[in-house]
Design a protein that fits this description.
It is built from 14 helices and 34 strands. With 662 residues, the chain is an alpha+beta fold. Helix 10 links the parallel strand 10 and strand 11 (297-300). Helix 10 runs parallel beside helix 11 (342-351). Keywords: Glycoprotein, Glycosidase, Hydrolase, Signal.
């Protein structure tokens, strides 16, 4: 009898202890009209900061400025294409060390809103999908339940999500929510089987305690296709929009859960050749105040945009093909270099009326380096350096092969053939698409005859043919520039290079040698300056139209700075082997490239290099100059051309314009 009572007491004690332990365990769930964090109502004001768009030495500074503004959460995508650049070759180091990124966020008191894609848009190449998917199957139905696609998605999710499982809130980490796909209602597939597969993969790999959500534009048809059973439906809109009206639409699909604007736009995307987008800070804080009054959570997209280093930038497809600028400044509250703006201070002041700000003064802009002008020396043409840029030699084929088939993700491929036979003067050179398939030239082709430039073909300008004179046995070279795969809409299966036939007066040219150029890429774990191994100094001034230029400069104090490339035409810049990205000042609006302090070192042996594609401003060595300045120039004038005004009218309501693209 006494033994039975003792056993009952023991069992009761164990049950109560277990219940107490469970009640003390971290929990984050969806409640009625609010989130519940550890059982208490919770809402967030978050900021998006993409880890790959900032040098990892800047991550803590970003988080510190977010907290100083009163934010309590950070949101980021995971860019699959950077982490798995080739099949089953993974990279989680340096700028891609996402575990460190999330732990630092937690250190600064920020919870994490995770957006693992697999498609993310984010204005990156192919919307974050790896280019090699198109090599595996060019007719693969992306973002669908097509098994030829989902086999790779499943493999990726089964790799990356377990890697982060211990960082979920239930396990003591900062991750509170995980998004299913991304703005899927804007994609016509509307494939519920695919969406539910992603949901199952997240739950299997991260546990049942994670809160799932979806993000779509605040339109009925978008949320209808984008919603997933068991996931919180949220929507996105920008400053100046009707918050009450948008949330009223959201309530049709999110009946009693918390209201969330998952992407609240304080600015907008910029494209080469289009006016720089700005949004008034008054509109930003007014819409924030409206959302707060409606008891909503929201995520400022982005709080700091950062930079599309290397070949990261994607492109949009509106009335024309629109490559995204190297800067991802976005007119965000924190500039590309991370400096607070008037918009930042207005947001901080507003949030300070909602809850206490952290102690300490408001952040101020950091010092910038003005390292002055640097004289560059000509380091040879593309052809002079071809062996160094492609040590393996060419890949040969009867007809041109795409970047994907060549296993070359980004940048440039030189296509070469020797012309046989005699053609008219002038002959018509044409790169046509494949009937019933397209594409043709993607995206920009510089044409050479016997290594002399004779013209440019352009996808943006829809120039796919040109006249030229070429004699028998002369060499035809076409340097094709991949300007970024489409990142949004139905055109994301965006093959690059020459995809089709090259003809002269309708005669198909064959016997091609192709040179994928091995330029420093992003992310590069061990960057080094380009190796210009020329036996003779090239001194013919007339041939200095395009090619490589190099110069050394001194740094007495390592600071962030900006590379000014006035007078140069179009190309890529490298600092100590780090690819800063594309410059194109004649197209605008961006005129300077951001140089993080981490890319520099004290001393006289810093190296700046340009790969100028079209026209250097050099008549002599001493006229080949770039300059390191303290103030960026992002909003210069842009060319006038048909269709520009129509786009700019739509750009005044950019979050609507985006939904119409593709």
């Amino acid at each position: 009898m006494h033994l039975g009572v003792g056993l009952l007491v023991l069992i009761t004690t164990l049950l109560l202890t277990d219940a107490a332990a469970k009640s003390d365990a971290p929990s984050f769930v969806v409640g009625k009209g609010t989130f519940l964090r550890d059982g208490k109502p919770f809402r967030y004001i978050s900021g998006t900061s993409h880890y790959w768009r900032h040098h990892h030495s800047d991550w803590e500074d970003n988080f510190n400025k977010m907290r100083a503004a009163g934010l309590n959460a950070v949101s980021t995508y995971i860019s699959w294409n950077l982490h798995e650049p080739e099949p089953e070759q993974y990279n989680f180091e340096g700028n891609l060390d996402i575990r460190r990124y999330f732990r630092l966020a937690q250190k600064y008191g920020l919870v994490v809103i995770l957006r693992p894609g697999p498609f993310i848009d984010a204005e990156v190449d192919m919307g974050g999908l790896p280019y090699w998917l198109l090599r595996m199957n060019m007719t693969m139905k992306l973002r669908s339940s097509d098994p030829s696609y989902t086999q790779y998605v499943s493999r990726w999710y089964n790799k990356v999500l377990p890697y982060l499982k211990d960082l979920t809130y239930a396990n003591g980490g900062p991750i509170i929510t995980v998004q299913i796909e991304n703005e899927y209602g804007s994609y016509p597939a509307c494939d519920k089987v695919y969406q539910n597969l992603l949901k199952s993969l997240v739950l299997q790999n991260m546990g049942p305690d994670i809160v799932l959500y979806t993000t779509d534009g605040c339109l009925d048809y978008m949320m209808q296709c984008g919603k997933v059973d068991g996931a919180l439906t949220t929507c996105d809109f920008g400053a100046g929009e009707n918050a009450a009206g948008n949330f009223q639409t959201l309530r049709k699909f999110n009946v009693d859960g918390p209201l969330v604007n998952s992407e609240f736009y304080p600015g907008w995307i910029d494209h080469w050749g289009y006016t720089w987008n700005t949004v008034a800070y008054q509109d930003v804080v007014r819409t924030m105040a409206d959302m707060w009054a409606l008891n909503a959570s929201f995520n400022i997209y982005p709080i700091r945009g950062g930079t599309n280093f290397g070949f990261v930038a994607g492109a949009n497809l509106g009335n024309d093909f629109q490559p995204v600028t190297t800067t991802y400044d976005f007119d965000a509250p924190l500039t590309e270099a991370g400096d607070p703006t008037e918009k930042y201070y207005a947001i901080r002041n507003l949030i300070g009326t909602y809850w206490p700000l952290p102690p300490g003064p408001a952040p101020v802009p950091s010092a910038k380096g003005a390292y002055g002008k640097v004289q560059l020396s000509y380091a040879g043409s593309l052809f002079d350096n071809l062996k160094a840029l492609r040590p393996e030699g060419p890949i040969r084929s009867a007809y041109p092969l795409s970047f994907e088939v060549l296993e070359h993700p980004y940048g440039f491929v030189l296509y070469r053939t020797v012309v046989q036979g005699r053609f008219r003067d002038p002959a018509k050179l044409s790169i046509a698409g494949i009937p019933g398939f397209t594409p043709g030239l993607r995206d920009r082709g510089i044409v050479f005859v016997d290594q002399k430039p004779v013209g440019i073909l352009s996808r943006t300008e829809q120039i796919s043919d040109m006249s030229l004179f070429i004699a028998p046995n002369q060499t035809l070279d076409i340097l094709v520039h991949n300007e970024g795969r489409i990142c949004y809409g139905t055109g994301i299966n965006d093959l690059k290079g020459i995809v089709g036939n090259v003809t002269l007066d309708t005669v198909v040219l064959s016997d091609w040698a192709m040179y994928p150029l091995e330029l420093p890429n992003f992310p590069d774990m061990n960057p080094a300056p380009l190796d210009f191994d020329l036996r003779e100094k090239i001194s013919d001034i007339q041939n200095r139209i395009s090619g490589f230029y190099s110069g050394q400069f001194s740094v007495n104090q390592v600071l962030d700075t900006f590379l000014q490339v006035s007078g140069w035409q179009n190309g890529y810049a490298f600092i100590n082997g780090n690819n800063l990205g594309r410059y194109w000042p004649v197209q605008g609006p961006q005129q300077t490239l951001f140089v993080p302090a981490a890319y520099l070192h004290e001393g006289t042996d810093n190296v700046v290099e340009l790969f100028e594609l079209e026209a250097a401003p050099c008549s002599l060595d001493w006229t080949c100059v770039v300059e390191f300045v303290q103030v960026p120039v992002l909003n210069a004038t842009v060319p006038i051309y048909p269709g520009a005004n129509e786009f700019r009218k739509r750009a005044k309501q950019p979050w609507r314009a985006k939904s119409k693209q593709g």
